[in-house]
Automatic annotation (TrEMBL):
Record's keyword annotation contains Amino-acid biosynthesis: no
Protein name stated in the entry: Phosphonate metabolism transcriptional regulator PhnF
SUPFAM superfamilies: Chorismate lyase-like (SSF64288), Winged helix' DNA-binding domain (SSF46785)
UniProt KW keywords: DNA-binding, Transcription, Transcription regulation
Keyword Transcription: yes
The organism of origin for this protein: Pseudomonas xionganensis
InterPro entries, alphabetized: Bact_HTH_transcr_reg, Chorismate_lyase_/UTRA_dom_sf, CP_lyase_PhnF, Tscrpt_reg_HTH_GntR, UTRA, WH-like_DNA-bd_sf, WH_DNA-bd_sf
HTH gntR-type domain: residues covered: 8-74
GO molecular function: DNA binding; DNA-binding transcription factor activity
Superkingdom as given in the UniProt entry: Bacteria
Origin organism lineage: Bacteria, Pseudomonadati, Pseudomonadota, Gammaproteobacteria, Pseudomonadales
Length: 234
């Protein structure tokens, strides 16, 4: 198969052809190898890589070192509501969700954190960092900040749904507000989420309260914008 020689860059024309072909492939399928594809389209491997790069940035493909280039499903839609929980909401939609605990540490609270969580000057926070994987692929990093007074309650948390863990211990939480933004990832975020450093992240800062209305958790989630969408119920 040969591509036309139009004014548009050849790699973009090739990306359009591949984009159309992906519609007939299933999530999890692998593209043929570079040599095979380059020969099929009569292009060099550099042009082929640039075309595939376009589709990786769009969230349609995922490069896996030593395995190949994999077709991804359409971006996930997370229905954000006051009582919704990340793992439970996506599991209910039929997705396999995993939450790994990466870090647990005590640190001083910032002025903003003290204000949100109604803490005294000089207060300490317990910060948990979790990595969320959907269908085995990393999608979100979440930093959860709690008053250090909850350290004993959270001492046994080793992963899984944090909302469920707290609810089972008599502390169900409800989302009070969420601030949604976008930015570029830092080096750690890009590495953890297997994404290019020049691709955008969705960031969501959320304050959650207990049934009595007391602020308990201030979280900051960063998610791949090409893999994740938030749906707000108005």
């Amino acid at each position: 198969m040969h591509l036309s020689r139009q004014p548009e860059p050849l790699y973009r024309e090739l990306a359009a052809v591949l984009r159309d072909e992906l519609q007939r492939m299933s999530p999890g399928d692998y593209l043929p190898g570079e040599v095979q594809l380059a020969a099929r389209f009569a292009v060099n491997r550099h042009t082929l890589r640039r075309a595939v790069d376009e589709l990786v940035l769009e969230g349609r493909l995922l490069r896996q070192q030593g395995k190949g280039t994999r077709v991804l499903a359409k971006p996930l839609i997370y229905p954000m509501q006051a009582g919704s929980a990340y793992s439970a909401s996506l599991s209910a939609l039929g997705h396999t969700v995993e939450a790994q605990l990466l870090e647990s540490r005590l640190r001083p609270a910032s002025c903003e954190e003290r204000e949100y969580l109604q803490l005294a000057s000089g207060a300490q926070l317990l910060e948990l960092c979790t990595l969320r994987l959907i269908e085995g692929q990393p999608v979100s990093l979440i930093r959860h900040a709690f008053s250090s007074s909850y350290a004993e309650l959270l001492a046994d948390y080793q992963g899984g749904s944090l909302r469920q863990y707290l609810s089972q211990r008599g502390l169900p939480l409800t989302r009070t507000f969420s601030l949604i933004g976008a930015r570029l990832p830092n080096r750690e975020e890009a590495a953890r989420l297997l994404m290019p450093k020049h691709a955008p992240l969705l960031s969501v800062q959320t304050l959650s309260r207990d049934l009595a209305g007391r602020p308990v958790e201030l979280s900051l989630s960063t998610s791949r914008a090409d893999r994740f969408q938030y749906q707000l119920a108005l």
